[in-house]
Design goal:
The complex is a heterodimer of chains A (about 475) and B (about 1050). With about 475 residues, chain A is mainly alpha-helical. Chain A has two domains: about 350 residues, no CATH class; about 30 residues. Helices cover about 70% and strands about 5% of the residues of chain A. In chain A, helix 10 packs parallel to helix 14. Chain A is globular. Chain B is of the alpha/beta class and about 1050 residues long. Chain B has 39 helices and 20 strands. In chain B, helix 25 links the parallel strand 1 and strand 2. Chain B starts with 12 loop residues before the first helix and ends in an 8-residue tail after the last strand. Classes of the chains: A mainly alpha (about 475), B alpha/beta (about 1050). At the A-B interface, helix 3, helix 6, helix 13, helix 14 and helix 15 of A face helix 7, helix 13, helix 21, helix 26 and helix 27 of B.
Chain lengths: ~475, ~1050
């Protein structure tokens, strides 16, 4: 009896944190699905309530945990899929610990602020409901992945964040660029997802379960140690590293980050400046015991972080538009955070994430006021603003300086290289198959097949008939 | 604004070296031509409203919108369906349509068309239905899957439908029955061939037992067939577009690839860093060497990854770096290699220049018109840009050729593309049938009638039909849209002027005080409310720089900025300085500002760097606190920040206004004006506002401006007569001049006595938060303080009322607010980071009145009018005063109204699209999203409540005088004669109105004598959000005596 009494509030509060955004998503989603759009004020009111409930429950829970002296609260939602013969079970489990609590609080606070901001910013906008629907997906995804206790739960949240991010990049769907860039973001995300999924399956294979606890013999984050061997850790860890690199736009995937600045300003702020871009780093933090288990893996993480941080800072200095510049500035810090994780400085990394996310959200939210800010700064200083290339630049040979400029200007050549060396060969390979297939079908049908290719490119084009 | 003509170096060597037929002069001409089409908006921090189609101003408006639309790929008018909505809403009445159509057709209105009545009736019918233009594929679907051929359109009245079915039924039945009886086929075959075809497809069965629905379907099918046969008979070619395709367009048609996209990707980024005014920490290396050289050097770096399509370009780039590089030769070379013929020059060059017209226009503007920028660009940048663009274009085309045709040789690609380009899609028979079919239903034309028509009649009908194309219909609908407002306005002015005339008045009473504003439409409501609050006061207006054209620098500002209309280049510099006794204190505060500024700048810059970013990020959580308060409680946060700022704000200041040196300049001793110059300014303004005698004891001049957050277009909301600056200093300077006894002596010599008891006060009205600030009150004599306090009280009440009237347009402001609450609401708006509509700026502007306030006073004009003061009594015989007023007012107001017109008509094409994804680029403009062309024009959020119309001038003068002004002033003539603005003249003493039509003035007959009369403005607008009509507000001025 006593056990239930003491456990009950934790379970209720924990469930409330996760359920509140889900309910918001369900309501907004169903209303959109049945074609009954809600009014602006109703949408914004519901969003505020959902965020407030999640935040309040999380805070109360933290308070309770501090009072009772617990540092770990799991909330189980049971197995959703079980395939006994393959020892597979899809287990939904949320944990509140030293890593997930700061992260979930951060998500709630930033989502709340951006929600309040957007409610006025998008006033009278046709896509108001659509934006908040994506927002609800994103918010649920963030809360789910922050609190995830098993790798499959994390994957669910991870996917929701990815989906909503790509949709928000393509928010202005009547123009070409947002859609194109949204698709690009989505493609990189899929690559990351594939790596993640393989890692998850491998983990299941090794430990028989996806529980992060299963990887760690004893202790709660960050004190656990991995139960797998260092070779196993290297395999899983490198897959997860690829996943994190895609999600956090680390080298060599950084190209999508500035391209993501297509949506309305607040969505850029929260998603690419603040939360989404840190999700990869969060994943690495979550599985940090695995990283600690293999020295080689640790070195890989540090190397990736270093390359990313340096190229991010080069790229940021060269950009002439505010949003791209801030995007790369974010990337620089994410690179540093990854280094910290590689070095095992978990708490520093966590503080760094929280601080950086807040700062960057604010900077992005007020990005359109740049001209006024610069004007005020110039007035205060009474002169034009000083421009310092970069303290270290002066010591480098001129040729190297120029090369660095070009590197930053061309965004680290990452998009070009991916296009030339990955995408183009991939396309060539499959169009070769396509040609073969075409020829074979021609032979079989004894005539030219595929009339569809003869169709005109733009039949919908319309000269004014009347 | 600037002179678009350019001197292009002619290169005699071009022919000899290239051995092509390209002539340098024709190339230079083509480029010069293209430059004229570039947008003329300069850097966004100095936003000046101007006619978007400035380069088409030599054409009449209706022609210009079409030509311009073709050139830029934009719409000329609103869509037909928008106008039709307005028709249903009553914003356009049928009467407007009739009148406009009559005027448009003139003598041809009664021409008979085939057998369907007059041209006028046919066109009127066509105006009232939506004629859908549907492509073939969709048409097939419509026929197969919808009721297109089964049911009449909904607009067709039941009677007409009944009538058509019955007639068709009788016609068909007669023939079929006849053939059955006589058993010889002559009767039935008297039905046309195709009718029989339709009948046999339609299925057999006894037609006697067909249901009503079946007859309806048959009628429609026959109607369709009749139209189709008719179109085929008619000897009318289908309408085609005439402009030839450029190479790039052909390639995109044949291959589906847009070669400009990859080129744009590179150029957007490069032009961005090239034009950058100090945003990026790291400046483009070799920027001073010019566009082409810095580009070439950047792309010649070794150890880099270049995109596949740029393979091989290094050879060309090396030639540029090794020099000498001549952009004209390079352009000629590129064109020759692409096989561009002499007669295609204009189109090709234009396309290249306009492909990124925002950026290209900015390069040209920065080269020619903005000497004040911190990072000017070298001369010749635009030509080099064009050269590089064509160079890249060549490589992009080669790459497409390689992938699609297996050759990278440009000549071969060109011939392949030429042979593969099909003729442009022309409307098919079915598409044209569909159009006529829709009108036939509405017009009640029966199949029988149509089948009976001769091919000559069909030719006539189809011609008539095609000559009244969608574009023509939109032109007529638009004219009707404008006419509706014009009629309302002129009627209201005539009635109101009469009412004002009938009021008892004594001309010699002095008003309690005089308030002078800018002519800006946003001040209309402020003036009206002020007159309601204190009925004994008078208001007047002049262009908001109050004839003080200067470069101004505030005590807490780093640079001079022009405060005068963009067409004037000021000679005078004025600086705000701390009072002599507070110089020390001011220095201390300036120091504090500098220190804080440096700290902020360091945080700002370092937060984007590697190590500095780490420290700022670790403490970044602290940033949440101000962020949360700013977003959740903007107004409170702003108040707190303001009180904290007290320690840094400059203490009491004065203007350095009087010059010691002979010539004006920016050195300390040559700042300011001479006494003579000041006197001239004072005289000019007093004449303009028509107050040369009987001035009250206090005259307040209100400059205006606007402050808002997160708004890259902030400058566009400021005073247009101050080049997008804030007009407070102009008002302050004017008041100082007019108060100076030495200036008054000089003014007296010019015939205007200013008694010593008359005092001028300068003030600043913020149109966003409706705050008002007064200058130099310490200089006001003690005897005037009481009166000033009263004025201040009236102004405070007015602020709240003005905010209240403005708030009705904001959907997020509840309609039941009190004026006080409304004031708080607008204060919050201006401080709110998340507010995309801090105010509505000039949106809804539609009217300019030029004349004495007396006949417009008390007329509710819904903030849609630029009220310009002019008193014919003060003017001389040569109408010099009116001429100088109009030569500023017409171009400026037309510029504002036309920029609003075009941005509203096509917000993506002419405007800058939605504000939400805007991204400040290079500190000179905004892009949409991550990378796009620079976007000039106005945003969706600025124009959403605007009604796109040409502005209507109502001027208090005579036709003879006005005709003389038009004749003598080329700038006015172009706008007036080209119908870019409409003009009407009023004589308030008789309420007679003349309209300017076809180069002459015609009397206007009011169509109604009704004008509602209300107690106060609030009674009239309360509870509504949409545009409101006119109303007279009862005058409460105490009776004379």
């Amino acid at each position: 009896m006593n056990v239930i009494d003491s456990e009950m509030p934790f379970q209720v509060l924990g469930t409330a944190v996760v359920a509140s955004p889900m309910i918001l998503l369900a309501v907004l989603g169903v209303s959109a699905l049945v074609g009954k759009p809600l009014t602006e004020s109703l949408i914004s009111r519901m969003t505020q309530v959902a965020v407030a409930v999640a935040l309040a429950s999380a805070l109360t829970l933290v308070g309770l945990m501090l009072v009772v002296g617990r540092s770990y609260v799991p909330v189980e939602w049971g197995d959703w899929v079980t395939i006994p013969e393959h020892h597979f079970h899809f287990h939904l489990k949320f944990v509140f610990d030293a890593l997930s609590i700061p992260f979930v609080l951060l998500s709630c606070v930033l989502c709340g602020i951006v929600g309040a901001f957007t409610q006025r910013y998008l006033h009278r906008e046709e896509g108001y409901g659509r934006f908040f629907l994506y927002y609800a997906i994103f918010f649920s995804g963030m809360v789910t992945s922050s609190l995830a206790g098993t790798i499959e739960t994390l994957f669910v949240g991870w996917e929701m964040v990815g989906l909503s991010s790509a949709l928000l990049v393509a928010y202005f769907l009547e123009r070409e660029n947002p859609v194109r860039n949204g698709q690009r973001v989505w493609s990189v995300y899929r690559l990351a997802d594939a790596a993640f999924l393989i890692a998850a399956i491998t983990m299941h294979h090794m430990t028989g379960r996806g529980d992060f606890g299963g990887l760690l013999s004893t202790g709660v984050w960050p004190y656990g140690t991995a139960t797998i061997t260092s070779t196993q850790a290297l395999l899983v860890g490198s897959l997860l590293l690829v996943a994190a690199a895609g999600k956090s736009a680390l080298f060599p995937f950084s190209g999508w980050l500035p391209r993501a600045m297509e949506g309305p300003t607040p969505s850029s702020a929260i998603f690419y400046g603040a939360l989404s871009v840190h999700l990869g780093a969060f994943l690495l933090l979550r599985v940090s015991p695995i990283i600690q288990a293999s020295l080689l893996l640790q070195l890989m993480v540090i190397a990736l972080g270093t390359v990313t941080a340096i190229s991010g800072s080069l790229m940021s200095r060269v950009q002439s538009d505010i949003k791209a510049s801030l995007a790369y500035a974010s990337l620089t810090q994410v690179g540093l955070i990854v280094i910290e994780i590689g070095l095992g400085l978990h708490y520093l990394a966590l503080i760094h994430i929280v601080g950086h996310a807040c700062l960057r959200t604010m900077q992005l939210l007020r990005a359109p006021t740049l001209l006024r800010d610069y004007d005020e700064l110039e007035n205060a200083m009474g002169s034009r603003l000083p421009r310092e290339a970069w303290a270290g630049a002066r010591n480098l040979p001129v040729d190297v300086q120029r090369w660095c400029y070009r590197f930053g200007f061309d965004r680290g050549f990452m998009d070009t290289a991916l296009d030339r060396w990955i995408v183009a060969p991939f396309q060539d390979f499959f169009s070769w198959f396509d040609r073969v297939e075409h020829r074979v079908t021609d032979v079989i049908s004894r005539e030219s097949s595929r009339e569809s290719e003869q169709a005109k490119l733009h039949p919908e084009e319309l000269e004014k008939a009347a | 604004m600037h002179d678009a003509s350019v001197v292009i170096p002619a290169n005699e060597s071009a022919d000899s070296r290239l051995g092509t037929s390209i002539q340098p002069e024709s190339l230079a001409r083509a480029i010069e031509h293209a430059i004229e089409y570039l947008p003329t908006q300069g850097p966004i921090s100095i936003f000046v409203h101007h006619n978007t189609l400035h380069s088409f101003e030599h054409l009449p408006f209706d022609q210009a919108v079409i030509e311009g639309g073709r050139r830029y790929g934009c719409e000329p008018y609103l869509s037909e369906s928008r106008y039709r909505d307005e028709l249903h809403r009553g914003r356009i009445s049928i009467d407007d349509l009739r009148q406009v159509l009559m005027d448009d057709l003139g003598d041809h209105a009664d021409d008979l068309v085939a057998s369907f009545g007059t041209r006028y009736t046919l066109r009127l019918a066509m105006l009232q239905v939506t004629i859908d233009a549907v492509p073939d594929a969709e048409l097939r679907w419509l026929i197969a899957e919808t009721d297109l051929l089964r049911k009449f359109r909904e607009e067709v009245s039941p009677q007409r439908r009944e009538q058509m079915i019955t007639q068709t039924r009788n016609w068909v039945a007669r023939h079929v029955a006849g053939s059955a009886r006589s058993a010889d086929s002559t009767a039935a075959s008297s039905l046309p061939e195709s009718v029989l075809g339709v009948m046999s497809d339609f299925g057999s069965g006894d037609i006697q037992h067909w249901s009503e629905r079946r007859w309806e379907e048959l009628t429609l099918r026959l109607l369709w067939q009749a139209c189709r046969d008719g179109i085929q008979q008619a000897q009318v070619p289908s309408p085609t577009a005439s402009t030839p395709l450029t190479l790039h367009q052909k390639i995109s048609r044949v291959t589906g690839e847009d070669t400009a996209r990859v080129v744009n990707d590179v150029l957007i980024r490069f032009v961005g860093v090239f034009l950058d005014q100090g945003f990026a920490d790291w400046e483009l290396p070799d920027r001073d060497l010019g566009f082409a050289t810095s580009f070439a050097k950047l792309y010649l770096e070794k150890l880099v990854v270049t995109p596949a399509w740029m393979e091989g370009i290094k050879r060309e780039l090396r030639a540029i770096v090794e020099g000498p590089f001549d952009p004209m030769l390079s352009i000629a070379d590129s064109l020759a290699r692409m096989g561009i013929e002499f007669d295609e020059f204009d189109e090709e060059i234009c396309e290249a220049a306009l492909a990124l017209r925002g950026w290209a226009g900015m390069i040209w503007q920065m080269e020619t018109a903005t000497p004040f920028l911190p990072k000017p660009i070298p001369d010749g940048s635009f030509f080099e840009y064009l050269a590089i663009r064509l160079l890249l274009q060549r490589y992009a085309i080669s790459d497409v050729g390689r992938r699609h045709f297996g050759t990278s040789d440009l000549a071969q690609i060109r011939s392949r593309v030429d042979s593969a380009t099909e003729a442009r899609h022309q409307p098919s028979i079915d598409e044209r049938t569909h159009a006529i079919f829709q009108v036939a239903q509405i017009g009640g034309w029966t199949p029988q009638q149509l089948f009976d028509m001769t091919s000559h009649q069909w030719t006539c009908l189809v011609n008539e039909f095609q000559s009244f194309s969608s574009l023509e219909r939109r032109r007529i609908l638009h004219t009707a849209y404008e006419r509706h407002y014009m009629v309302q306005t002129l009627d209201a002015l005539a009635v109101h002027a009469r009412r004002r005339r009938e009021l008892p008045r004594s001309p010699e009473t002095k008003p309690s005080f005089l308030a002078v504003f800018c002519i800006d439409d946003r001040e209309e409501s402020f003036r009206r409310h002020l007159e309601e609050v204190d009925p004994r006061c008078e208001t007047a207006s002049a262009a908001g720089f109050f004839a003080v054209a200067m470069y101004y620098r505030g005590a807490d500002q780093a640079h001079y900025r022009p405060l005068c209309p963009a067409i004037i280049q000021p000679n005078h510099y004025v600086q705000e300085e701390p009072l002599f006794s507070t110089i020390e204190a001011s220095k201390r505060r300036a120091n504090r500002r500098r220190q804080l500024g440096q700290m902020k700048h360091r945080v700002h810059a370092n937060s984007r760097s590697l190590i500095g970013g780490m420290f700022t990020a670790v403490f970044g959580a602290l940033a949440t606190i101000p962020m949360v308060t700013r977003i959740l409680a903007p107004r409170l946060t702003a108040k707190m920040r303001e009180s904290l700022g007290t320690f840094m704000r400059p203490p009491a200041t004065e203007l350095h206004l009087e010059r010691e040196a002979e010539e004006p300049g920016s050195d300390p001793e040559s700042l300011g004006y001479s006494l003579d110059e000041m006197a001239a300014i004072v005289v000019r303004i007093l004449q303009d506002i028509g107050h040369v005698k009987n001035l009250p004891r206090i005259v307040v001049f209100f400059g205006h401006g606007s402050s808002s957050l997160n708004n890259p277009h902030e400058s566009a909301y400021n005073c247009g007569a101050c080049s997008g600056g804030r007009g407070g200093p102009n008002a302050r300077a004017f008041a100082m001049m007019a108060n100076d006894p030495r200036v008054r002596e000089l003014v007296a010599k010019r015939g205007i006595e200013l008694p010593s008891e008359v005092r001028f006060v300068g003030a600043f009205h913020n149109t966003c938060d409706d705050s008002v600030e007064y200058y130099d009150l310490d200089l006001l004599p003690r005897s005037h303080r009481g009166l000033f306090r009263e004025i201040e009280k009236s102004v405070d009440q007015t602020r709240a009322r003005d905010a209240h009237e403005r708030a009705r347009r904001f959907e997020s402001a509840p309609l039941d607010m009190t004026p006080r609450e409304a004031l708080e609401h607008v204060e919050e708006r201006s401080q709110d980071l998340s507010q995309a509509r801090p105010e509505y700026n000039h949106a809804t502007n539609a009217l300019v009145t030029v004349g004495r306030r007396h006949w417009t006073r008390g007329l509710f004009m819904d903030r849609r009018v630029f009220l310009t003061e002019y008193d014919p009594a003060v003017d001389d015989e040569d109408v010099n005063v009116l001429t100088r007023i109009l030569s500023a007012a017409i171009p400026v107001c037309a510029g504002i109204s036309l920029e609003y017109y075009f941005s509203s008509i096509d917000v993506e094409g002419y405007g800058c699209g939605s504000k939400l994804p805007h991204n400040v680029a290079s500190m000179v403009g905004v892009m949409t999203g991550a990378a796009s062309d620079l976007r000039p024009g106005l945003s969706q959020q600025m124009i959403e409540i605007h009604e796109p119309m040409r502005i209507l001038f109502v001027i208090e003068t005579t036709p003879e005088k006005m005709a003389r002004i038009i004749e003598k002033n080329e700038g006015i003539a172009r706008l007036v004669e080209g119908h870019w603005v409409s003009v009407a003249l009023i004589d308030p003493e008789t309420s007679s109105i003349m309209r300017y039509v076809d180069r002459q003035f015609e009397p206007y007959t009011p169509s109604s004598n009704d004008l509602p009369q209300v107690e106060s403005s609030i009674d009239w607008y309360r509870g509504t959000r949409t545009n409101l009509g006119f109303a007279s507000i009862v005058d409460r001025a105490p009776p004379a005596g």
